[in-house]
Amino acid sequence: GIQVEQSPPDLILQEGANSTLRCNFSDSVNNLQWFHQNPWGQLINLFYIPSGTKQNGRLSATTVATERYSLLYISSSQTTDSGVYFCAGGNLYNQGGKLIFGQGTELSVKP
Amino acid sequence: KAGVTQTPRYLIKTRGQQVTLSCSPISGHRSVSWYQQTPGQGLQFLFEYFSETQRNKGNFPGRFSGRQFSNSRSEMNVSTLELGDSALYLCASSQEIHTEAFFGQGTRLTVV
Lengths: 111, 112
Fold this sequence. Notes:
The complex is a heterodimer of chains A (111) and B (112). Chain A has 111 residues and is mainly β.
């Protein structure tokens, strides 16, 4: 089955810095999402991005489906950006809506 | 529009007991999936339901089961609980199988 590798596993930033999180897939995916897990455990949707580029405020994401990777950019980071970021992907044709999650990137933004 | 609602939020059970968790999807969503999150294994897929039918199942023992009702609400059941079943159980809903998934706040199960 599909395997998802996220990097880096941990990231410590000063407030105001920019960062890039990466997600690599072992096989082609046509269903891809980025999430931020809040301290209470809920997964908050950031992007649904099987391909292309999207932006939402200080966050943007790019998926290059042909090369099996996705990037999440966080600009001008704030302490409230701290937490764990997950990417998850799947193949709708042979796995339905099943999402395979990466192990996450734990981001800590220091004031 | 209300989000995905999971009940209960927290649960403590004893080994050998069984437990039922509930998930109410976003109104109009017909697909419900369940995931287990543990520190050691991360987030793992349990099942996916659409129109009351299980469409996909993860690699979990038969003690884990689920169902979906005609109003799209879903329940999952774990029988003969083991200590290793302690986890955060997350439910996700989507309009169709191939659309964006939205997650509930989860049920944190502790088995003692």
